[in-house]
Design a protein that fits this description.
Methylamine Dehydrogenase, Chain H; transmembrane; mainly beta; 34 strands; Quinoprotein_ADH-like_sf; WD40/YVTN_repeat-like_dom_sf; membrane
Length: 617
């Protein structure tokens, strides 16, 4: 994931000088071709030497064009938050990247940081498991307010020395035989909606939402133009009640931490370090279970989604916390299609994976490669641009993002965007001194979070033409630091729809949702929906959706938020007979809202239940 570092010389080399033994390595970059496409952060185009006649095997993005236009202002009439006004454009305009590949899975891409072992900050109070998120190049905890923008490089003299070995690992893919599958009952399709809620450990003061003392909560705060009606009273007819619940599994709490959740038309698949299990959406009964295969110690991570053929990707811990193997799984049957990988000389502590219709891409500081989704053969392998580089990487959707720090090279810090299907570089940007990728906040549209020294981290969008939008700080004076999730994180804390980022914030001792314009950088609105204990964000790509927590002893509601002004419309209410009035099922859980109005909750830690489905009575 973003945050792993890799020094020079990672991975064994064969007699031909290739790293990774059995996996073919990518040849080196053509410095002239790559320099031609690069541009400076301050907006000035960099003219590189003419491309050489010989085309290198790894194409790069198109040459940088004219300096990017400044980001457009926020939406007309929207109340601007001066604290989120951008101070500078983050990157210059770039040529348009290739058209995105087919959607990854039958559901919309989900917002989520890469996860692997170990994690950066455990959310519920439990030790980290294999596959829990690892922190990257994070800044120290804030002790003072204020934003200081970091300057950018203003000159480029081309690449430094070449010769670093490619990423990847030796070892052929191991084809596995099908596993027996239990019969499943047909159910209605969950729509292209998936999401999760912010863990209590993430937001300061969020624990007050669940202490049962409703008199301490202030219902004011935020701009809201929507309904303030609370649920819980009257008849339970037509309200959401528990349809089924899967009991919690005995075992170590750290091993039971959810690595990811996949959904198909008939199943919900939950994975942890010990294995993956597919449950029927119709009755909650287990359809299949896949344990850790021979040669691996545990599962490390899962792709955020399955592709259109219900194939998902995973990574494995081969021992000693080295998540250097990957595999493809048929989510319909639970069959492990293949496992490929061998231990690396520089451990891959956190390997994030993503799947397209043809390729499984893996990203960490030690493993950056693509594999055929059918048989695990090597498709591409990333090669550093210089001999001594330290890398951060993340992958989501059809995108791989890499930032490097190459000592003695010019520029030293650089950010590359790769096509996950081919490994080809589509865009290249210079970074300022000490800056590096934290994670991919959203793969489509592309939004990146950048670490930039002490408390100067920011996020920035890149539009469909490759133009970089406003640089928006995560920390502003007088407000809590924004907590964004990556597009590969199994627990969503933020999501991007169109040109707007939606994120949970702490306001007046309860959780509100803030909308931020990615083009101009201004805050559009902040709402709490009139809910006594605030809102919890649900990832729904068609429109922002939230669960309203209306206080102790009252059932909650499912709300749709108007993107323009944050006004709310009630979609459903929970029955007083359900256990939703305490909202323990939604505390640090991945939540799905289906097209037919059902709500599925999969907790990060199965303290009370492994999964629960609510349906209208």
């Amino acid at each position: 994931m973003a945050g792993d570092q890799r020094g020079a010389g990672v991975g064994p080399q064969d007699a031909a000088g290739r790293q990774g033994g059995g996996v073919p390595q990518r040849p080196g970059f053509d410095p002239a071709a790559v320099a031609d496409q690069m541009t400076q952060l301050d907006g000035a185009a960099v003219v590189g030497p003419a491309p050489s006649a010989a085309v290198p095997p790894q194409p790069t993005g198109a040459p940088g064009g004219a300096p990017g236009a400044p980001g457009a202002p926020g939406a007309p009439g929207a109340p601007a938050d001066v604290s989120y006004q951008p101070t500078a454009a983050a990157f210059p305009a770039q040529s348009a990247p290739p058209a995105p590949g087919a959607p990854v899975g039958p559901y919309d891409p989900q917002a989520g940081s890469a996860y692997g072992y170990p994690q950066n900050a455990p959310q519920p109070p439990a030790p980290p498991a294999y596959g829990a998120q690892q922190g990257g190049y994070a800044t120290p905890p804030p002790t003072a307010y204020g934003i200081q923008q970091t300057g950018y490089s203003t000159q480029q003299t081309g690449y430094g020395q070449q010769g670093a070995q490619g990423y990847g690992f030796p070892g052929p893919a191991v084809q596995l035989s099908p596993a027996p599958v239990k019969q499943r009952n047909p159910v209605m399709v969950f729509g292209a909606i998936a999401g999760s809620l912010l863990s209590v450990a993430i937001v300061i003061g969020l624990v007050v939402l669940f202490n049962g003392n409703s008199s301490q909560h202030n219902t004011a705060g935020g701009t809201t133009g929507g309904s303030t009606t609370t649920g819980g009273g009257g008849s339970d007819a037509g309200k959401l009640t528990v349809s089924w619940s899967v009991p919690k599994v005995d075992g170590s709490a750290s091993d039971q931490r959810t690595l990811g959740v996949w959904t198909t038309d008939k199943l919900v698949v939950r994975g942890d370090a010990t294995g993956l299990t597919g449950y029927n959406l119709s009755d909650g009964k287990a359809a299949w279970t896949l344990k850790v295969p021979d040669g691996a110690k545990a599962f490390c991570s899962m792709s955020k989604d399955v592709n259109k053929n219900n194939i998902g990707g995973v990574s494995f811990n081969l021992g000693d916390d080295d998540c250097a193997a990957v595999g493809a799984i048929d989510a319909t049957t639970g069959r492990l299609i293949y496992k490929v990988g061998s231990p690396l000389s520089s451990k891959s502590f956190s390997t994030q994976v993503t799947v397209t219709d043809t390729t499984l891409a893996a990203a960490s500081g030690s493993l950056l490669a693509g594999f055929n989704l059918t048989d695990g053969t090597s498709v591409w392998s990333y090669k550093d641009r210089a001999q001594y580089c330290s890398d951060s990487a993340d992958t989501a959707g059809a995108v791989v993002a890499i930032s490097d720090d190459c000592a003695g090279s010019s520029p030293e810090q650089q950010l590359m965007i790769l096509d996950a299907n081919t490994g080809k570089t589509t865009q290249t940007f210079n970074l300022g001194s000490g800056e590096r990728l934290t994670n991919i906040v959203s793969a489509s549209p592309l939004v990146l979070q950048i670490s930039s020294g002490y408390d100067n981290d920011y996020f920035v969008g890149v539009d469909s033409t490759g133009k970089v939008e406003a640089k928006i700080p995560l920390k502003v004076t007088g407000q809590d630091r924004l907590q964004l999730s990556s597009d590969s994180d199994p627990m969503t804390k933020s999501l991007v729809i169109g040109n707007t980022l939606y994120v949970e914030v702490n306001q007046n001792s309860k959780t509100a949702i803030r909308a931020i314009d990615l083009v101009g950088g201004s805050t559009l609105w902040t709402v709490d929906g009139g809910a006594q204990d605030g809102l919890r964000l649900v990832d729904r790509k068609s429109a922002p959706t939230a669960i309203a927590m209306d206080g102790f002893g009252k059932s909650g509601r499912v709300l749709s938020l108007n993107p323009t002004d944050g006004s709310v419309t009630q979609l459903a209410a929970f029955s007083s007979k359900s256990n939703a009035n305490a909202f323990m099922p939604f505390q640090g859980a991945e939540v799905f809202y289906s097209t037919d109005g059902r709500v599925l909750s999969v907790p990060q830690l199965p303290m009370e239940a492994t999964a629960t489905l609510y349906a209208k009575g």
